[in-house]
């Protein structure tokens, strides 16, 4: 928790209203998103109970499993959901756009838009991941055939759930996290997990939030009380009103989902949001083509090399997302200023035409002096960037305290982002009197270490890939056994 | 009548199980919980009595699936359980100590002790164990099978959450591991009292869960040494509960027949330590949350820490705006808060422009 966000929570307590923690929107909000509110059957391994789904706020489609232990009914549910989801994702596989690559020397074609699916909370994403896992390997022939939409649904859900793990991706989003990225409430994050309460904090304030605390849950887990008192008797006597009861239960969440979208749309999008959505379009295009070519379902578990590569991709996406948010949003950048990784100041001197001719060829190396009252925790030689001129590097030449004022003078030498001539393009060098923010954050692409090709990997690291069930869990799969180790999560001292 | 009985009043003492012990150690800093639990007060009813009921129900569906899974494993003289434990051919006795519901706790406990002491190769179901909690001996009615083989004892826990592709819900796995650690500790204390080597109880426990999306069982071994260490540390801290109880004014009681006002006053004598984690672990959480309104701790430990450990929201904002002068110890936190407020206001103004 950053101090700035914590302070916003304190302000929310005092004012009784949620407080903004972002000045721009950090995610893409689609013009035609699909919303899905899933409910799971308690006790079962990710068995669906019901869902509201669709793209029209006024016309949610209701899907219900009236006998949750009936295998055929479950697959009818998956088939139905599959038809809704697949026709939605397929609707973007027509219009294409050209994107310049290789510094504009070439173009690449991708779909001009991509699907966007919204669920209420992280639990909804997990539910979809597991539903994807339980359907993508189903056979459409043989002893227990299922409709062709079922394994296809599984592939798409797996794709979406995997992209939801990539920081900054907007293909599958959940409302709780999306709101939590932009507003702080006056309660704990544990309490924020309840969508109805979180949204009430933002729309109406603390009192309204308390009032809806015992309202219908946003799923996928149902309320045990509801299970025992309402659901169990209805299922037992195979009551015809079961679907209606479930629709009533989910409808408040469905309506909230669209209100969340409305709230987010009112925020201006961050400058780099479109660029990240471009990455989502690339991912969608690649996967849509893979599916169209009859690609196999994603493996149960990645081999060692694939897993390492994925981890690396996730890490660099996380780093890029963090930097981009800071560059797009002064409120996020302020967190770095508070931590000493950025400072704001005013340009007091500027030599925009300074040439360095100590090398083979003379180069343009303007210098500026910035005076700041903020703590400067950078060493001479460090490269800094200003979010307003992301293509320009500012190397710290010296940092000197201004006698008696507590302020600092930072001398910087600029390179890049000033045109190709020995005279800087107008406006490319900060002028005297201009207020600038400089940070150690940089948008520059960081090359990741190369991983060996899968076929050259020793068997100890997963070796050539095997696409079969992992060894029986006896003896303990690493992922499971290592989990309880970090079990804390409880207050200690 | 002991002082603890007095505190509980006319109600029957709540029995402990591994879940309550695990929860008890979940907020070890809380004196209120320590006192109420050691005295065996029914916190759910106490919360209702003071007007802050909580809901800690369990779904029938979850229960019935759990029961069905367990019944399946134990059918035909535990055929499936034996095979998943890899004890297929060994001559294993199966004894269910929970089958006779009429006998007294101490009877059942001595039968447990006798059986475990002699066990060479056996599956012992529903043993009745004891644990020292806050200077009291509490009976544990664990839902476990003690698996004796090759001179060692292993805790087997049957859980109905699924393990999919070797992964399970980490919250459920860690809860199961803490519970299992409680059993290991209780078994070790028992062996010790019997003059046997406590380390005969394996620190690796076996969880038997359904695999993937079917009811096929799978056994995984989990090392609970870490949980054991935490549990021991937290239980030893609870040992001091006697001193807290002795320090309570005479006449303080949580007897549920008292009026709500009296009960609230009684609660006021024992210090709470509310944190959002209480919401899922303690029946009294709605009451304590209400009481903790306006504290930074109620927003969660990370928030409180990020605010320099300043205890109340009012003080945080007063220090940040400069309307309150910091004490010498608050200097550092106050400087951070002032800077944070300045940056936040500036960025919000910039963003709005
Ligand atoms: S809810 Fe209250 S009594 Fe229970 S652990 Fe938390 S502070 Fe202690």
Structure write-up:
The complex is a heterodimer of chains A (493) and B (353). With 493 residues, chain A is α+β, with helices and mostly antiparallel strands. Chain A has two domains: 298 residues, no CATH class; 110 residues, Elongation Factor Tu (Ef-tu), domain 3, CATH 2.40.30. Chain A is 38% helix and 18% strand. Chain A contains 14 helices and 17 strands. In chain A, strands 14-15-16-13-10-17 form a six-stranded antiparallel beta sheet. In chain A, strands 4-3-2-7-8 form a five-stranded mixed beta sheet, with helices on both faces. In chain A, a hairpin with a 4-residue loop joins strand 5 and strand 6. The C terminus of chain A is likely disordered. Chain B is an alpha/beta fold and 353 residues long. Chain B has three domains: 91 residues, no CATH class; 175 residues, Alpha-Beta Complex (Lambda Exonuclease, Chain A), CATH 3.90.320; 52 residues, no CATH class. Helices cover 48% and strands 12% of the residues of chain B. Chain B has a six-stranded mixed beta sheet with strand order 1-2-5-6-7-8, with helices on both faces. In chain B, helix 2 crosses helix 7, helix 7 packs across helix 8 and helix 14 crosses helix 15. The mean pLDDT of chain B is 87. Iron/sulfur cluster binds next to helix 3 and helix 12 of chain B.
Bound molecules: iron/sulfur cluster
Assembly annotation? heterodimer
What's the overall average pLDDT of chain A, rounded?
Answer: 89
Helix content of chain A: 25-40%
What's the β-strand tally of chain A? 17
Going across the major beta sheet of chain A, what is the strand order? 14-15-16-13-10-17
Q: C-alpha Rg of chain B, in Å?
A: 24 Å
Order of strands across the main sheet of chain B = 1-2-5-6-7-8
Average of pLDDT of chain B: 87
**Radius of gyration of chain A from CA coordinates:** 27 Å
The computed structural class of chain A is alpha+beta
Which regions of chain B have little confidence, pLDDT < 50, spanning 5+ residues? none
How many domains in all of chain B? 3
Number of separate strands of chain B: 8
Largest sheet of chain A: 6 strands, antiparallel
- Strand fraction band of chain A? 15-25%
Tell me, what's the shape of chain B? globular
Order of helices and strands of chain B: HHHHHEHEEEEEHEEHHHHHHHH
Provide the domain count of chain A: 2
Largest sheet of chain B: 6 strands, mixed
Region (Disordered) (chain A): 449-493
Protein name (chain B): Secreted protein
